[in-house]
Amino acid sequence: MTTVVTDNCRGCRFTDCVSVCPVEAFHMDDEMLYINPDVCIDCSACVPECPVEAIYEEDDLPDGQEHWVDINEERSQETPNITETLEPLEGAEERREALGL
User: Fold this and answer.
1) 3-state secondary structure the chain
2) pLDDT tens track for 54-90
3) Could you tell me which of 30, 25, 26, 33 has the C-alpha nearest to residue 9?
4) Which residue, among 69, 52, 66, has the nearest Cα to 9 in the 3D structure?
5) Going by C-beta distance under 8 Å and a sequence separation of 6 or more, which residues neighbour residue 81?
6) Which end of the chain has a smaller Cβ tally under 10 Å, C or N?
């Protein structure tokens, strides 16, 4: 089992979750974050920190979101590690409102 970032992160890239990760498992690209399943220790500390409810334990993924397990694994190998909180993307608050959160 692993912890997974899903589509709600796209266009927001809030990094509150990064600051609570004890093993630096997060990676990022220009749109969103990903979790490296080989580094993640499944502590779930990041799950409640996400303001757009984009992070789930693999067993708790909503129906139709299972493909994000593979996406996180692939993209975390191709993108830089992030270890510090950054400003969210421009328009992140509007995206959060559009998601109803």
Assistant:
1) CCEEECHHHCCCCCCCCHHHCCCCCEEECCCCEEECCCCCCCCCCCHHHCCCCCEEEHHHCCCCCCHHHHHHHHHHHHCCECCCCCCCCCCHHHHHHHCCC
2) 999 999 999 999 999 999 999 999 999 999 999 999 9
3) 33
4) 52
5) 24, 26, 27, 36
6) N
Cα(56)–Cα(86) distance, integer angstroms: 21
Give the model's confidence band at 24: pLDDT under 50 very low, under 70 low, under 90 confident, else very high: very high
Residue 13 near residue 92 (C-beta atoms within 8 A): yes
Mean pLDDT, residues 14-41: 97
Pairing mode, strands 55-57 and 33-35: unpaired
Closest by CA position to 42, among listed 30, 59, 63? 59
For the whole prediction, is pTM greater than 0.85?
A: yes
